[in-house]
Design goal:
- It is a single chain.
- This protein is an alpha/beta fold and 261 residues long.
- The protein is 38% helix and 23% strand.
- It is built from ten helices and 15 strands.
- It is elongated.
- The N and C termini lie far apart (67 Å).
């Protein structure tokens, strides 16, 4: 079979093999190797990049490798990590929830553990942008659940974007329970996602009492976008493994914040 007769799948598989073998290839190299036009090769590279099978570069491609910086994880990976810490934090946070109140629960694996601790509460009104949280509480409670809809973030089961933000502009939240991807005492709370950052900033604006839920593994790190500083929160809940030095630094930075460990 001539190269020009290759099926699309075979051609793309050949591209992946060449990229992985040579570590870097150019469009010109692929044109010569496969005997297809530059436009066809560029379309193949775009398709393969969208499938996370390679990364396009200027004039070519390199193998796909997950970045070694904090760029976030999908829902399954997040849920599997530090379960004991998240359960501990969730139980503590649930003690702050009063019956007959209106609360917001931010998307996240730690906040999901918190949501599961609320089933014995009474007459709650809950706003969330997390599909997993909304479905769980709808199935296990009689609470009034409001879901802030919008663009669903792939593999994260939650919504961000202008549609979700517009839905919360004129509401009032008694207590907001939020999570973060990373935290630095001096710099604040971070997320790798710009849309997620905008959602969090706007959720804080409509909330009276703000609670941060974060496990000790995320402390001392930063990510792409800061959405808040310590001064923006009334309470911070962490697991028992957090260092005493960190607690002291937090209280020095914001003497008014309530720290629960």
């Amino acid at each position: 079979m001539k190269n020009n007769d290759l099926f699309i799948e075979e051609r793309r598989r050949k591209i992946i093999e060449l990229v992985n073998k040579q570590q870097r290839v150019t469009v010109d190299q692929l044109v010569k190797e496969l005997s297809f036009s530059p436009a066809t090769i560029r379309n193949d590279l775009k398709y393969l990049e969208n499938k996370e099978l390679l990364r396009r570069t200027h004039g070519g491609a390199i193998p796909f490798k997950k970045r070694e910086i904090n760029i976030g994880e999908n829902l399954r990976a997040k849920t599997a990590k530090n379960q004991d810490k998240k359960i501990e934090i969730g139980k503590k946070a649930a003690t702050l929830v009063d019956d007959n109140s209106t609360i917001a629960i931010d998307a996240g694996s730690t906040t999901f553990r918190f949501a599961k601790e609320l089933v014995d509460k009474k007459n709650l009104t809950i706003l969330t942008n997390d599909l997993q949280i909304a479905v769980y509480l709808d199935n296990h409670t009689n609470f009034d659940i409001f879901f802030a809809g919008g663009k669903i973030e792939k593999k994260l089961n939650c919504c961000y974007g202008s549609s979700a933000i517009n839905q919360i502009k004129d509401i009032y939240i008694d207590k907001c329970f939020m999570s973060a991807e990373s935290f630095d005492v001096k710099k604040g709370f971070f997320t790798p996602n710009l849309s997620e950052s905008d959602w969090k900033i706007n959720l804080l604006k409509v909330s009276d009492y703000k609670v941060m839920l974060i496990d000790s593994s995320k402390i001392g790190q930063t990510s792409f976008k800061r959405f808040a500083k310590l001064e923006n929160f009334n309470c911070m809940i962490m697991d028992k493994q957090v260092q005493d030095k960190i607690i002291e630094e937090i209280q020095l930075e914001n003497p008014d914040i309530k720290v629960i460990v």
